[in-house]
Inverse folding.
């Protein structure tokens, strides 16, 4: 591991900004979801009322967990089918200046599932596959709604934890509407303008054809990028307009835009943690969880950075074809040479190691999946961190919702295991964690390894599955593991190196995404439903303290031991052994 | 034939718990003192451990069932290795792993059998108490005893609810029942372990008798209240034996968690094979099973039921019978303890501590009158007045020149006293004595009421003393200060409770002023004065509505509804049948202070479970580092870097992990049976200490343990 001041400072500054953002964002979330007045009230409230009137939603009607979940399922499935139809028919639909034809069924299905589950796994290159209409009406629509659905679910689950009477978790339609109207839209408008300022295109014109300095004619893809980019990041979607995602200068032009994009990934997740503490009546509860995930974030970010900055020892001496020994200098030089050092393969020069690894850690900590560097080219350990981040359930700040309720499942588990050690039936927020709660939390946490390890194990021995691997050995295993990890975790970032646009990978991937989203959220909602109706026991000196460092450490311990160890055997054969081989002089 | 039996008359604030005071004075020997590892239990447990290998028994415990299936699989592997020449080199290793896997199952079975064994031994003792002598059944409608009355000799199993039986001196009581006539001293040692006989009589709160106890003197006619198989003794045997032990809610939840963890690790291990095949070197079935068994939480899985049984058993050791494991768990969760003042917080009886004169009377006058009024008074209060008058006020023996006529206390007159020739003395409640004086034309001095109020405010009970001599007007001499004596050490106890997060509420029939003073002196958090069964019930409901769990003790029939409503209701064994049935625990010692111990046992049970679960899961870290490099080092020699324990060979590494995993179960049996000690410190401290010990310790210990086993195996050339 090698560290530079620059890289560590970037991590520190970024984390500090997230700490500062958590409270204001959290307070705004309280206003949005607890239906208090916001600044936008005069403009947006009439629109909100109008939407309810048109759709026949009764604003004050409360739903129990079943009604809430059913409404969410209906909405998501309808959106999924709509997107599928648009993709298939895009050739015949308007706003198609680049003349894209209909998408083939397996890919269309994979993409439809991908965007409606907030995964945004892309088995296609955006600019070469999708029409502008598909991008804007199909994909960007889902970028908003799938994010708002995630938020609504998180808010509903939190209500289950904190409410003191009744079984109601809120109203899905109201939460969805308010999430989009008061939260995502206003921020995205400002955010898109910022991106335009930084140089991101926003146009309905087709691709630009230019003659380059060398005299070649070059086609430069353009499009309504800024509007899509904003929600791609804020909604932790991650599905890029371009194939190169946030590594593309038109999606992420500058270090400044890079910072803002990273901040927008964590903002809502960090805000949700504050929101949680606030509505639970004790902000310290939220800060304890913030501390736990903050710790996991920092450890991951530092390791990933250290591994990449350290570079690849094999490159120190590379035997080129003509037997001449090539030495790649991977040391870091500040000012004079301004050499980033480390493993720069697959990274953008304008970002360097620090901004690349931080982006990678952040995008996988939360369920974003946007990337600004090529994970396949990372060192084994550098590439294992993002994979592990996702495998844990993207609980680190969690993005728009899904990670947040994943974190709460670990909290339930931690409280149940260790809570007994204070000599009481475990309780969290005064509610007893009993049979049903443990059952539901355990099922939810079982879903992730089931899908990730199950599909990977199948693909790795299935001849077609193996044939799509581009690198042999442990690296190939990492590629497959990453693909199913990312899809199950609804992250969407790609390790690349695995050719996944095949019917096998499209269908199994879509299935993994569906399991990862609904197989997880249904037990979680059931748990919230059970908790909502529970009596609250007042806290006293005999109750398990759920604030403070000790509790945060406990949660971290449970996440690492229960969550991470599940994947240890698989990783031992993938990135870990690859790393050990690399330092012993063998690469893949 | 009837022998006069004197018992202190029950008064409003002195429930008939006379025996309690005496009981506490001496140190009670634990009833059936059975050592943790008694040879007899040990040998039975070893046999039972093998009997429990039956898959139908194992299937109830998903974790150990997986281990058993795994053991069976490796056994098949071993047989295969005998037949297949290619596998011959692995024979010894496969056999060793197989044996240790079977040991793992046996050790877990042994733990459970040990826990049950103690109960079974106790049940055997209880069974001996079951009566074999025929019962004397009387014709229906018999209400009284007549010498030589006709009865029908029937075996105890033929008795049904409602039958009447005669039990005379020397007879065993055939079944549970209510005394309809007679008084007898009964030896209840078979049930309570207490050899001093107790008095049972018809009517009132002490009319219940238990089958298996013995009448020592006199006779009683008992109406049978239980059918055979449902008696207290039968239930007690079933309980201590754990015959129809139901899993408790928390245990069920923990079982689910353990089952899901097992599935997760099963998944991790099963999917490892395809990954290994891809990597070019499939892992042997034996190694996979070894990895699986080491990862799934066998430590807690193997000890879980033993912990539960031992928890119940610890209560039995304290002479408390929990009717369900659920109640024991609830005891750990209790937020509010309702404690009866008398007998629990204060000594059973109030004692006279001072004579306060009024109306210009001399202390001698007052002391003499107080003494006279109390000479025939057999109540503890009366005796204490005599003692105070003689010892502190130096009153001479009273020479009665004439017969003393004792006017006993009654609920309507609320005073007692003595008439002797020309003199009448009375002592009693202030308003009653004032009314008596007033009625006889005496004056009411102004300083009586302030004195009375002052005593009441101080937590005492004022008894006004008045005297009427022939020919003169009656006059009030003064007030006796009866004081409640708070038991020593109660304040510390309640402080401890507060640290545990438990509020204590004192329940008393006293007026609020008195109640407050005693509550302050004893250091309870709150009190309920002038308690009635209704207000008691209301208090419980209010607390429960606020999300709190309530525990209480009770013995009277009027306590029954509250006992049933409370989350933990401990009925005194001396109490009525109704109370015993309403509560979910019975204290055979009838010691209300026991409630505090019950709470501790409940907490201990939960802590033990949590500690061993944490320990079990934390163990996995080291096992990964032992087995994963060992399994794959042949394919990727570089994985040797993960072999942080520097275990000698792959086979020795795997075997060491399996052996550690099996031995740790045996090593933790004493902890599971005795329970993790509970200390009344705040939850935060408890959590920190236990996390360090069982969490961090659970991570570190197996690294050391596996290394040591590896060294031993190497030294013995077994690896």
């Amino acid at each position: 591991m090698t560290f530079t001041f620059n890289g560590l400072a970037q991590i520190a500054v970024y984390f500090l900004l997230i700490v500062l953002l958590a409270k204001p964002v959290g307070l705004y979330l309280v206003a949005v979801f607890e239906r208090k007045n916001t600044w936008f009230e005069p403009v947006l409230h009439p629109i909100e009322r109008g939407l309810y009137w048109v759709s026949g939603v009764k604003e004050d009607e409360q739903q129990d967990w079943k009604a809430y979940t059913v409404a969410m399922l209906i909405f998501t499935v309808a959106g999924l089918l709509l997107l599928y139809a648009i993709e298939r028919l895009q050739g015949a639909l308007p706003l198609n200046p680049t003349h894209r034809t209909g998408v083939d069924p397996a890919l269309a299905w994979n993409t439809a599932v991908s965007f409606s589950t907030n995964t945004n796994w892309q088995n296609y290159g955006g600019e070469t596959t999708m029409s502008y209409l598909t991008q804007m009406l199909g994909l960007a629509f889902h970028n908003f709604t799938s994010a708002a659905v995630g938020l609504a679910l998180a808010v509903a689950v939190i209500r289950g934890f904190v409410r003191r009477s009744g079984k109601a978790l809120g109203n899905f339609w109201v939460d969805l509407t308010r999430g989009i109207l008061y939260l995502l839209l206003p921020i995205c408008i400002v955010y898109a303008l910022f991106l335009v300022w930084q140089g991101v295109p926003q146009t309905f014109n087709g691709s630009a054809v230019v003659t380059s300095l060398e005299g070649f004619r070059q086609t430069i893809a353009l499009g309504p990028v800024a509007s899509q980019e904003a929600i791609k990041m804020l909604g932790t979607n991650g599905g890029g307009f371009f194939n190169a995602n946030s590594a593309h200068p038109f999606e992420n032009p500058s270090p400044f835009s890079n910072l803002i994009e990273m901040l927008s990934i964590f903002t809502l997740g960090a805000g949700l943690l504050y929101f949680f503490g606030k509505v639970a009546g004790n902000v310290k509860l939220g800060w304890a969880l913030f501390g736990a995930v903050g710790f996991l974030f920092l450890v991951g970010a530092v390791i990933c950075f250290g591994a990449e900055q350290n570079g690849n020892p094999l490159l120190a001496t590379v035997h080129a074809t003509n037997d001449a020994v090539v030495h790649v200098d991977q040391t870091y030089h500040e000012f004079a040479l301004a050499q980033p050092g480390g493993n720069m393969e697959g990274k953008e020069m304008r970002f360097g190691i620090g901004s690349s690894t931080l982006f990678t850690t952040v995008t996988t900590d939360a369920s974003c999946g946007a990337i600004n560097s090529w994970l396949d080219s990372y060192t084994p350990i550098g590439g294992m961190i993002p994979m592990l981040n996702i495998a844990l359930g993207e609980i680190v700040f969690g993005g728009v919702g899904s990670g947040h309720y994943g974190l709460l499942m670990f909290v339930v588990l931690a409280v149940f295991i260790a809570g007994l050690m204070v000599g009481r039936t475990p309780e969290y927020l005064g509610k007893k964690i009993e049979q049903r709660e443990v059952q539901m939390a355990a099922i939810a946490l079982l879903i992730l390894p089931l899908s990730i390890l199950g599909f990977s194990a199948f693909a790795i021995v299935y001849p077609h599955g193996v044939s799509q691997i581009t690198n042999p050995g442990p690296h190939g295993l990492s590629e497959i593991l990453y693909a199913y990890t990312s899809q199950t975790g609804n992250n969407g970032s790609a390790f690349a190196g695995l050719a996944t646009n095949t019917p096998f990978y499209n269908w199994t991937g879509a299935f993994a995404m569906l399991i990862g989203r609904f197989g997880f959220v249904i037990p979680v909602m059931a748990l919230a439903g059970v908790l909502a109706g529970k009596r609250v026991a007042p806290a006293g000196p005999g109750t398990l303290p759920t604030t403070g460092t000790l509790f945060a450490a406990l949660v971290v311990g449970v996440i690492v031991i229960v969550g991470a160890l599940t994947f240890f055997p698989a990783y031992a054969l993938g990135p870990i052994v690859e790393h050990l081989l690399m330092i012993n002089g063998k690469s893949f | 034939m009837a022998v006069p039996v004197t018992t202190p008359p029950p008064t409003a604030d002195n429930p008939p718990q006379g025996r309690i005071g005496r009981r506490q004075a001496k140190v009670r020997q634990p009833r059936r003192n059975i050592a943790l590892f008694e040879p007899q239990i040990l040998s039975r447990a070893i046999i039972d451990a093998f009997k429990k290998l039956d898959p139908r028994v194992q299937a109830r415990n998903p974790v150990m069932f997986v281990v058993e299936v795994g053991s069976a699989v490796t056994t098949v592997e071993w047989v295969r290795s005998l037949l297949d020449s290619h596998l011959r080199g692995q024979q010894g290793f496969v056999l060793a792993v197989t044996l240790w896997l079977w040991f793992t199952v046996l050790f877990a079975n042994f733990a459970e059998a040990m826990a049950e064994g103690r109960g079974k031994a106790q049940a055997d003792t209880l069974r001996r108490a079951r009566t074999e002598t025929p019962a004397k059944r009387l014709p229906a409608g018999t209400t009284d005893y007549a010498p030589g009355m006709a009865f029908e000799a029937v075996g105890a199993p033929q008795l049904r609810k409602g039958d009447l039986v005669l039990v005379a001196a020397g007879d065993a009581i055939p079944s549970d029942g209510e005394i309809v006539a007679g008084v007898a001293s009964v030896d209840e040692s078979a049930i309570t372990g207490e050899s001093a006989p107790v008095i049972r009589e018809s009517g009132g709160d002490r009319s219940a008798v238990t089958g298996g106890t013995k009448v020592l003197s006199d006779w009683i006619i008992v109406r049978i209240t239980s059918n055979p198989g449902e008696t207290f003794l039968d239930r007690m045997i079933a309980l201590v034996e754990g015959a129809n032990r139901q899993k408790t809610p928390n245990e069920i939840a923990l079982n689910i968690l353990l089952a899901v963890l097992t599935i997760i690790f099963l998944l991790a291990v099963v999917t490892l094979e395809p990954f290994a095949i891809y990597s070019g070197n499939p892992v042997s079935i034996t190694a996979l099973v070894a990895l699986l068994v080491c990862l799934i939480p066998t430590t807690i899985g193997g000890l879980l039921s033993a912990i539960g049984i031992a928890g119940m058993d610890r209560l039995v050791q304290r002479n408390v019978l929990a009717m369900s494991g659920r109640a024991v768990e609830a005891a750990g969760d209790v937020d509010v303890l309702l404690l009866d003042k008398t007998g629990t917080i204060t000594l059973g009886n109030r004692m006279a501590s001072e004579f306060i004169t009024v109306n210009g009377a001399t202390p001698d006058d007052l002391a003499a009158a107080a003494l006279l009024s109390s000479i025939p008074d057999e109540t503890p209060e009366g005796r204490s007045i005599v003692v105070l008058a003689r010892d502190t006020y130096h009153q001479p023996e009273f020479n009665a020149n004439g017969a003393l006529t004792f006017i006993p206390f009654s609920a309507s007159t609320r005073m007692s006293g003595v008439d002797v020739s020309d003199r009448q003395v009375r002592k009693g409640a202030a308003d009653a004595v004032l009314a008596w004086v007033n009625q006889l034309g005496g004056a009411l001095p102004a300083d009586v009421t302030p004195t009375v109020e002052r005593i009441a405010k101080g937590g005492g009970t004022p008894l006004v003393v008045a005297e009427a001599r022939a020919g003169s007007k009656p006059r009030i001499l003064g007030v006796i200060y009866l004081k409640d004596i708070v038991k020593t050490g109660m304040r510390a106890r309640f402080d401890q409770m507060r640290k545990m997060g438990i509020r204590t509420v004192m329940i008393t029939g006293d007026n609020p002023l008195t109640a407050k003073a005693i509550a302050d002196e004893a250091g309870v958090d709150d009190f309920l004065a002038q308690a009635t069964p209704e207000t008691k019930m209301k208090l419980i409901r209010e607390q429960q509505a606020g999300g709190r769990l309530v525990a209480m003790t009770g013995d009277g029939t009027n306590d029954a509804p509250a006992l049933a409503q409370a989350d933990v209701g401990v009925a005194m064994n001396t109490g009525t049948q109704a109370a015993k049935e309403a509560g979910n625990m019975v204290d055979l010692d009838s010691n209300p202070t026991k409630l505090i111990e019950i709470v501790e046992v409940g907490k201990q049970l939960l802590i033990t479970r949590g500690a061993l679960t944490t320990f079990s899961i934390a163990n996995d870290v080291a096992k990964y580092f032992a087995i994963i490099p060992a399994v794959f080092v042949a394919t990727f020699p570089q994985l040797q870097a993960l072999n942080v324990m520097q275990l000698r060979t792959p086979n020795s590494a795997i075997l060491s992990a399996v052996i550690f995993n099996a031995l740790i179960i045996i090593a933790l049996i004493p902890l599971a049976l005795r329970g993790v000690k509970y200390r009344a410190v705040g939850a935060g401290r408890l959590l920190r200490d236990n996390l360090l010990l069982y969490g961090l310790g659970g991570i570190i210990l197996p690294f050391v343990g596996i290394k040591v086993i590896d060294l031993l195996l190497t030294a013995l050339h077994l690896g």
